[in-house]
Amino acid sequence: MRGIACLHFGEIMPAILLAALLLCSTFAASEPLKSAQFQRQHIKSMSVVAPVWEGYTNKDGTGLYWDIFRAIYQPIGIKVKTKNVPWNRAMKMVAKYHTYNAIVGEYRDSEEQVIFPIYPIDVEYMAALSKHQDGFKWQELESLRGKTVGWIKDYEVIPKARRNFKLKEFRNIEQGVKLLKSGKIDFLIDEWDEIAAVMQKSKMSSDDFSINEMPQGTDVYAAFSIDNLSRELIAIYNERIPELVESGELAEIYEKWDNAEMPEALLNLDN
């Protein structure tokens, strides 16, 4: 106090202004942290959307992906709401309209306006279904050269730069099977499990059709809309997955669903 009393008025004012600026800066720096804490504490539910994939995203709310989301969020008080919607519409609802928080089953190199957690949710093995041809030898991408290849709209299975074929998209795999049977496409590409399931459902004989396996499996992820709520949901996802691996709960979920394979990135967390 004695030091201040000895200052002239012209010297006091800059000192007061400096103190005020320092106080404001300190307050502003603390705001993002307070905002993040407030947001997490008040998240009561989140929504995730995907097509119907048997054993993964069943209509009744069961399945590998739905179970993983519930294990991540519901123990901390965030209710998980699931919805089944065809892929291209589901992606628009997440990436463009932000109707849902997340879509599950996307590649990390997607060109869509979405953001990703650190950890993949599954390993996807693709296959190409074709009519049986005597003497035909499958040579992966080279076998597609000059052919008409079909997959579900917006799947982007093979990047544009690597396509040596004509692409025809369709709404669902059943429509793709009709195009294959009628000769309008030469190959139908989808996940191996989906092709096997539709062959069984449509009573397609292996004498008439062949499943040609694509290269090694690819990690797939949950993709979130770009907004502050989704960033907080991703932060929770990244925190909870290692906890679920350590407790053994995540391994139990994958084991529950017979065809599921835990991605290597998750297996490495347990080492």
Structural overview:
This protein has two domains: 42-123 and 218-270, D-Maltodextrin-Binding Protein, domain 2 (3-Layer(aba) Sandwich), CATH 3.40.190; 126-213, D-Maltodextrin-Binding Protein, domain 2. The protein has helices spanning 2-5, 9-41, 64-73, 87-95, 173-181, 192-201, 228-247, 249-256, 264-267, and strands at residues 45-50, 79-84, 102-106, 122-124, 126-131, 148-152, 166-170, 187-191, 209-213, 218-224. It is built from nine helices and ten strands. With 271 residues, it is α/β, with parallel strands linked by helices.
What are the defining features of this structure?
D-Maltodextrin-Binding Protein, domain 2; 5-stranded mixed β-sheet; 271 residues; alpha/beta; 9 helices; disordered N terminus; 20% strand
In short:
By secondary structure, the protein is of the alpha/beta class. The protein has helices at 2-5, 9-41, 64-73, 87-95, 173-181, 192-201, 228-247, 249-256, 264-267; strands spanning 45-50, 79-84, 102-106, 122-124, 126-131, 148-152, 166-170, 187-191, 209-213, 218-224.
How far the N terminus sits from the C terminus, by CA atoms, comes to 61 Å
> Quick check: average pLDDT?
87
| Spatial strand order of the main sheet | 2-1-3-10-4
Strand content: 15-25%
CATH fold-level assignment of the largest domain = D-Maltodextrin-Binding Protein, domain 2
CATH class assignment of the largest domain: Alpha Beta
Task: Report the uncertain regions.
Answer: 1-9, 16-35
Structural class: alpha/beta
Helix content: 25-40%
Report the C-alpha radius of gyration, rounded: 26 Å
